[in-house]
Amino acid sequence: MKQFAVGQAGARFEDDRLLRGGGTYVDDVHLDRMAHGIVVRSPHGHARIKSIDVAAARSAAGVLAVITARDWEEANLGDLPSHPGLKRRGGTPMYLPRYPVLAIDRVRWVGDPVVFVVAETVAQAMDASELVSVDYDPLEAVVATSRAIEAGAPRLYDDCEDNLCFEQSAGDKAAVNEGFAAAAHVIKHHFVINRVTAAPLEPRGVVAHYSKSDRRFTVHTPTQRPHSFRAQLAKILQVSEDSVRIVTGDTGGSFGLKSPVFNEIPLACYASKLTGRPVKWLSTRTEGFLSDAQGRDNVIDAELALDAHGRFLAMRVKVIAAIGAYLQFNMPVFFPNVGGLAGVYRTPAIHVEMIAVFTNTNPVRPYRGNGRPEAAFVIERMVELAAHELNVDSAELRRRNYISPAQMPFKTGLTFTYDCGEFEKNMDLAMEAADVEGFRKRRAEARKCGKLLGLGVSNTIERASGPGTETVEIKFDRKGGATLFAGANSQGQGHETTFKQIAAGRLGLDASVITYVQGDTDRVIRGEGTGGSRSATMAGSASLLAVDRVIEKAQAIAALVLNVDPQTVNFAAGVFSSTVTNQTLSWAEIAAAAENTANIPPDQQPGLSASATYESTTANFPNGCHICEIEIDIETGAARIVRYSVVDDVGTVINPPLLYGQVHGGVAQGAGQALKEDIRFDDSGQLVTASFMDYAMPRAHDLCPIEVGSNPVPTATNPLGVKGAGEAGCVGALPAVVNAVANALAEFDVGDIPMPATSEWIWHAIDRRPRDANNSAS
After folding, report:
1. pLDDT mean for each 10 residues of the chain (778 residues)
2. 3-state class of 769 per DSSP?
3. Cα–Cα distances in Å, from 424 out to 330, 383, 409, 458?
């Protein structure tokens, strides 16, 4: 038997099937008599809809249905979910507009859905969509985040005169003011966290089928949270939750994008009910750029107060966050993550104010990290700027302000209380791995070859696995095979391997005899799903609890079979035994015995199964140190990451290769935003980066081998001692890469480092006269 327990490295169980073409993605779903949908989208960033004429489209060849906003409302169907309950300054209610499935009287971004056309084939649906005639009255658009709240800016909603959705604040403002009053140094900086898009390998899509006989919708779609997705969709369709089945097969990436119900899902469901046919809609890549929710897009002003010895006294931060044309459900949950502004430092007082504004752009939603990378970027850039201003080595400045292990638990100056961590040790280990001592020599050698070399450090911490629940069920068949049903849903993270590993190690079983089931609301009893780096903590702990419960039941059954006192039954390495008999029982024997009611304790049901719901009342705080070494060609401005080292504390490491994969992917996304990725609109709201020809995704050759080390400090907040790992790479990479660019350009008077720091921008920055051509600052 192959032992596979927590902490052991092992190949993913998913990969053999996926690499051999055995995956089932939404485009692999083909149902009999399946029709196809196409969305007619707004070509304007902002316009009134004067009229819609769909007569020609309805009479086109192969067309089965054409759905407008009027049709939707006449069917008494609902809107997309938004996020109520927040406030504006002074405690007045937030401005919360309707989020219609199809635009009613006005379009508010290029890509806003207006009409849904369904036909026998994709080609026929596309041809018919061209026949839809919409008479628009174009309006002035507001695109820039900072402009949305300016006096005289175009209004997205007539009854919202300032484009302001909600305001939030946190921290002790009076204590912050006192800290600044006592400061010897004050560092100020203006940051723009640019807008990006998730661009997962598999675009969004759906196959919806309404069964008239049982009046039930079956919806095949990739989503992170099948059960909450079902609840939201049922509300839109005005049906009970048990009238909707969500089936999520394999999912080719999500990064937060595929959590909510987008417009096309209920449209496909209603179209299926209208036509009596299954309906498929698949996004093209360009359509994804136009219709997917996007991420980040913050304008931030930050100030850091320090005493004469370089110790942090206080920090104040003001954020303008774009939310796009509509407020997506769960979008505001990024605000609780602003506690990451405290970083790993002892800053006594921090205050943050944030306002969320509407713009004529795609709605914004949680994207990998969801406020965590932004917070880490601000504090770690401020540390570097302060070190430069005080003429102190940035590592030394960090050491003066680190929270020590002896101070744990530590209540930060902004909302979070850290339970454990060794922050300075993380940096020491990372500096050793990155050979920081040899950097000056490498920099000098690079300069001889016409290259600038920069070193960037970030010490980051984030909130993961916040309060919530997750459920796992385990069932044995008569032959001793087990099936694990998990509410968490994978988008490539390796959930099957992770949860099998937890269960197999505890059960003493070969992991290959355990079947893993996820993503089907008819088979998985309940679940909150995946997001916020919660899966290992939540579903992992639920797996552990469910396994312990099934072991307890098996011991009771073994006692009846062996005719011994239950207290004498031992369990080890998959075998049940008793000190009063020389007999032993395997899992297969226990499972078979469990089908006989004579072997079942009075308070138990026949069969060998158990379920558990794990409830977390507090978050955990993964942390680490990233060190990026970047090389810039002086002649062209081209930047290349040549060395990257990470030391992470994610608590107990379940499977090291899976952890490394998560960190590698996150680093790629953080580096991509820092150097290449950028969503841009023109002044009218037209998206000018609507393909990979314009939106520069990082490729393999843009990265170097990433060295990942661990400094695990298990947390006591969950049974496994794990801390979330899914977003750690992205959180640390964003500031590390930009800090490296800033360090490489230290001898030039470049001012702020924008994101992305493209080769064009760097080339222009280098083209200026250096302050000191012989300066070789480290």
Report:
1. 76 93 96 98 98 98 98 98 92 96 98 98 98 98 96 96 96 98 98 97 98 97 97 98 97 96 98 98 98 97 98 98 96 90 98 98 96 97 97 97 98 97 98 98 97 97 93 96 96 95 95 95 95 94 97 96 94 94 94 94 92 95 98 96 98 96 97 98 97 95 96 97 95 98 93 94 82 36
2. coil
3. 34, 15, 16, 12
Quickly list H helices, 563-637: 587-593
Burial class (CB in 10 A: 0-12, 13-18, 19+), 96: middle
Q: What angle do CA 591, 595, 597 make, to 5 degrees?
A: 130
Give residues with Cβ within 8 angstroms of 567, minimum separation 6: none
Burial 394-406 (b: 16+ CB within 10 A, else e): bbebbeebbbeee
Taking alpha carbons only, the member of 340, 298, 303, 335 closest to residue 319 is 298
Determine the Cα–Cα distance for residues 350 and 341; give it in Å rounded to an integer: 8
User: Could you tell me which of 377, 340, 375 has the C-alpha nearest to residue 739?
Assistant: 377
Sheet containing strand 106-107, strands side by side: 106-107, 47-53, 133-138
How, if at all, do strands 244-247 and 216-220 pair? parallel
* CB proximity list for 74: less than 8 A, separation 6 or greater: none
- Give the ranges where 563-653 is alpha helix by DSSP (H): 587-593
Q: Which residues pair with 119 in a beta bridge?
A: 36, 63
Q: Strand, coil or helix: what is 645?
A: strand
Residue 461's CB is within 10 A of a number of other CB atoms, namely 31
Tell which phi-psi region holds residue 47, choosing left (phi > 0), alpha (psi between -120 and 50) or beta.
beta
Helix (H, G, I), strand (E, B) or coil at 663: helix
Distances, alpha carbon 89 to alpha carbons 32, 183, 609, in Å: 54, 29, 52
3-state class (DSSP) for residue 283: coil
- Give me the helices (H) in 34-68, please: 55-58
Radius of gyration of the chain (CA): 28
Rounded distance between C-alpha atoms, residue 665 and residue 726, angstroms: 9
Residues 6+ apart with CB under 8 A from 277: 33, 34, 35, 64
- The amino acid at 761: W
pTM of the model: 0.95
CA dist 701 → 523, 639, 670 (Å): 42, 12, 15
CA-CA-CA-CA dihedral for 222, 227, 231, 234, to nearest 10: 50
Q: Residue 196: what residue type?
A: V
| Helical spans, DSSP H, in 566-652 | 587-593
Q: Distance between terminal CA atoms of the chain?
A: 54
C-alpha angle with apex 752: 751 to 756, nearest 5 degrees?
Answer: 135
Q: How many CA atoms lie within 13 A of 162 on its CB side?
A: 12
- Could you count the other beta carbons within 10 Å of the beta carbon of residue 269? 25
Residue 37: which H helix or E strand, with range? strand 35-41
Pairwise CA distance, residues 157 & 108, whole Å: 9
Helices (H), 434-586: 439-448, 495-507, 535-562
